[in-house]
Amino acid sequence: MEPEFWHQKWRERVIGFHLNEPNPFLRKHFGQLGLQPGQRVFVPLCGKTLDIGWLLQQGYAVAGVELSEIAVSELFAELGLTPVIHDLGSLKHYQALQLDIFEGNLFDLTAALLGSVDAVYDRAALVALPADTRARYAAHLQALCPAVPHLLLTFAYDQALRQGPPFSVPAAELERLYGVHYSLKELEYRHFEGFQQNVPVRETVWLLR
């Protein structure tokens, strides 16, 4: 999926993936990661999610990466923060208080630029990527932040009934992508009909250790 797809979504405000409240699964299950306030959480493909504000309010440091300059600018504005911006070539680094956001392509982000993180919260990254990119994404995350726990949200549905994103990522694929390095624990799921075409969907929150 080309970057222009997401740039167009933000320009045209087609951002139904943006929730108007912190994710309920995050609030309910974040404690399963076993972090202490002050530790740092990485949120890939973060958009301007309100989950970041919630994490900051709980006392955690947050790092994220996001392709859209619009999303990054609105994130800081809505948090009431004025970032210091550093040009890193293919990326820009926005920093304010305990928040670091890298604007640009996730695959341009390196472990050296990201720095140390204590957990990954993947609310909408894996499911935003087509099948031919998900393996590369999982491997890149392992290189960026090896051996840290993940809180991961997925959707599973009949992919033949609609095009993504968000894409269907069933449990078997999740095991293929992460099972070598992590044990996977299903924490909770819910069924709903959504994504405009009323397709039956199973949304699941996973703990990876």
Question: Can you characterise this structure?
Answer:
With 209 residues, the protein is of the alpha/beta class. It has a single domain (3-208), classed as 3-Layer(aba) Sandwich (Rossmann fold), CATH 3.40.50.150. Helices cover 29% and strands 27% of the residues. The protein contains seven helices and nine strands; from the N terminus they run H-H-E-H-E-H-E-E-E-H-E-H-E-H-E-E. It has helices spanning 3-11, 24-29, 50-57, 69-79, 111-114, 131-144, 171-178, and strands spanning 40-44, 61-66, 84-87, 92-96, 99-103, 119-122, 150-156, 184-194, 199-208. Strands 3-4-5-2-1-6-7-9-8 form a nine-stranded mixed β-sheet. The longest helix has 14 residues, at 131-144. 36% of the residues are buried. The model has no long low-confidence stretch (mean pLDDT 93).
SSE string = HHEHEHEEEHEHEHEE
End-to-end Cα distance, whole Å, is 29 Å
General form? globular
Please give the count of helices: 7
Please name the CATH architecture: 3-Layer(aba) Sandwich
Taking all Cα atoms into account, the compactness measure Rg is: 16 Å
How do the strands of the widest beta sheet line up side by side? 3-4-5-2-1-6-7-9-8
Q: Summarize the main sheet.
A: 9 strands, mixed
Main structural class:
alpha/beta
CATH fold-level label:
Rossmann fold
What is the residue-averaged pLDDT?
93
User: CATH-wise, what's the superfamily?
Assistant: Vaccinia Virus protein VP39
